Amino acid sequence: MIGSLYIVATPIGNLEDLSLRALRILKEVDLILCEDTRTTRKLLSHYDIHTPVLSYHQHSRLQKIEYIADQLRQGKNLALVSEAGTPSISDPGCKLVGKLVSWQVDKEENFKTYKLKDLQTKIIPIPGPSALVSSASISGFPMDRFLFLGFLPRKKKRKKFLEIVKNSKFPIIFYESPYRIIKTLEELQEMLKDRKVVVCRELTKKFESVYRGSITEVLRELKADKIKGEFVVIINKK
Asked: Is the same domain home to 122 and 141?
């Protein structure tokens, strides 16, 4: 009997946000695949969970995916978690899921034995925290439709992405690091003038901050504050 792979959402900050179902799954599975074993072990230790962990991240090779597939073939149930939030959303977990359902085959990696269509494993979502959804829910902008861009490119294709932001008929959501948030907002200020934005930092954590207003106003507040933590930026439609 083929095992199942559970895609388990974990807290983006506050450990109390782990659902009861996620808690049960993490206890019951045979192995937890995680982006950062240190971060995941802190969560597991908090809930006294002793399930073995295995690292799986953006640099993992296809051989590791084949190992994961073999575990499933042996009937073992696995859970996939990201460092925080919902796996596969702007996260390396999407590569694993894509390969297990045979959407993606990396020819350039010359992994000739990589054929998983016979696997037929169940991939089961365990919903929960998401920085994307959490930020959208408090934005106050119309969120019946929006465009999510993940992390903006640093250099290549960055101009194209900024043009998408400028011309979108829907609110735009993207992630940004503390090292580029000021530069990114300055670029957007030049393009969008004083379009309304919401910038969320460290949601659900001790120093949670939400900045609202025009791009100019938010920039002023951010420059006067400590630039730490990951950011979610929401730009209202034009």
From this structure: no
Task: Please tell me whether residues 64 and 87 are part of one structural domain.
Answer: yes
Residue 142 shares a structural domain with residue 179: yes
Q: Residue 212 is part of a domain; what is its CATH number?
A: 3.30.950.10
- pLDDT single digits (tens) 79-102: 999 999 999 988 888 888 887 876
Q: What is the mean pLDDT of each run of 10 residues along the chain (238 residues)?
A: 93 96 98 94 97 86 83 94 92 82 53 52 93 96 95 84 89 94 93 93 93 96 88 92
Residue in this structure with the two tokens 């993490």, named with its chain if needed: 26
For residue 24, the domain's CATH number is: 3.40.1010.10
Euclidean distance between CA atoms 34 and 138, whole angstroms: 29
User: Are 143 and 218 found together in one domain?
Assistant: yes
Structure tokens at 214: 């025009």
The total of structural domains in the chain comes to: 2
d(CA 130, CA 162): 24
Q: Measure the CA–CA gap between 197 and 209, rounded to whole angstroms.
A: 14
pLDDT tens digit sequence for 114-145: 445 556 788 999 999 999 999 999 999 999 99
* Burial of 228 per CB tally in 10 Å (0-12, 13-18, 19+): exposed
* DSSP code, position 22: H
